[in-house]
Specification:
The protein is mainly beta and about 250 residues long. It has one domain: Double-stranded beta-helix. It has 4 helices and 19 strands. It has helices at about 50-60, 185-190, 215-220, 240-250, and strands at about 1-5, 10-15, 20-25, 30-35, 35-40, 65-70, 75-80, 85-95, 100, 105-110, 115-120, 135-140, 140-150, 150-155, 160-165, 170-175, 180-185, 200-205, 205-210. The strands form 4 sheets. It has a 6-stranded antiparallel sheet, with no helix packed on it. Strands 11-12-9-16-19-14 form a 6-stranded antiparallel sheet. A hairpin with a 5-residue loop joins β1 (about 1-5) and β2 (about 10-15). α3 (about 215-220) packs across α4 (about 240-250). The radius of gyration is 19 Å and the shape is globular. About 40% of the residues are buried.
């Protein structure tokens, strides 16, 4: 198997499959493929956990099955395209540790990867349109490719070092990093700060990747230009309610 990220601002991931190779993804990730690539549905990956992993994905708003791609009768290729300007990059997962990824960040992976819901938190105040804050956990053995929006910033946190992050900017972090949901301090900050009600406290040791342009915040920035009557300083908490509008513009519901 060979994988190549092509492009810059709106990249694609092209995976070349030899006979016997396979790659898995959630539904709706395929962009194009050669005619000899066979698609099938599976609840069980090489990483194991089968039906239980599928039930955990459902609990996090995903599906019971994953889509599997295999080449038949020779070499084939399958392509996954970014849905927003940003980056696609690989992470290597071993039995020594996995990763947690924001809800729509996992693009695809080798068959040894097991994706499940890692955390689901409902917020008050309309944040994310009722979806809450959902993290997907990637574990097992193999390579996973993730898609993050905008510019990507990496931090290597030492033990005990904490970074407070707006939930929408969470990209990927190692599962050695602990995380807790904390409220924005101060009633005036909550009511007038325009930053929502919650932050995520990420505490090392481990590496984290943050994204600069999550969809809900982009939705808030575009809202004045879509006839919604809002102002450029619209509260980030309205992002979820605007997700359906922006999803229609960008081709994906959020």
């Amino acid at each position: 198997m060979q994988a190549e990220v092509k492009g810059t601002t709106a990249p694609i991931l092209e995976v070349t499959l030899d006979p016997g190779d396979e790659v898995i993804s959630t539904h709706g990730e395929l962009s194009w493929m050669t005619a000899n690539v066979v698609m099938s549905q599976t609840a069980n990956t090489g990483g194991g956990k089968g039906l239980m992993a599928g039930l955990k994905r459902i609990a996090g708003g995903g599906g019971l099955f994953l889509t599997r791609y295999q080449a038949s009768g020779g070499q084939g290729s399958v392509v996954f395209a970014a849905k927003m300007p940003g980056r696609i990059f690989p992470i290597e997962i071993t039995s020594a540790g996995g990763y947690l990824v924001h809800r729509h960040g996992w693009l695809c992976g080798t068959s040894g990867i097991t994706p499940t819901v890692g955390m689901q938190q409902s917020f008050r105040g309309g944040l994310w349109g009722g979806d809450g804050f959902v993290l997907e956990k990637l574990e097992g053995n193999g390579t996973a490719w993730v898609e993050l929006a905008g510019e990507i910033t990496q931090y290597d946190l030492v033990a005990g070092q904490t970074l407070l992050v707006h939930p929408g900017h969470i990209g990927v972090f190692q599962d050695s990093v602990s995380f807790t949901i904390t409220r924005v301090p101060g009633i005036t900050n909550k009511l007038f700060g325009g930053d929502g009600y919650h932050l995520v406290a990420l505490t090392g040791p481990g590496t984290i990747w943050l994204q600069s342009m999550p969809l809900p915040i982009l939705a808030g920035a575009l809202e004045p230009f879509l006839g919604g009557g809002g102002s450029p300083g619209a509260d980030a908490a309205v992002g979820g309610s605007l997700g359906g509008i922006i999803g229609g513009v960008l081709g994906r519901s959020v």
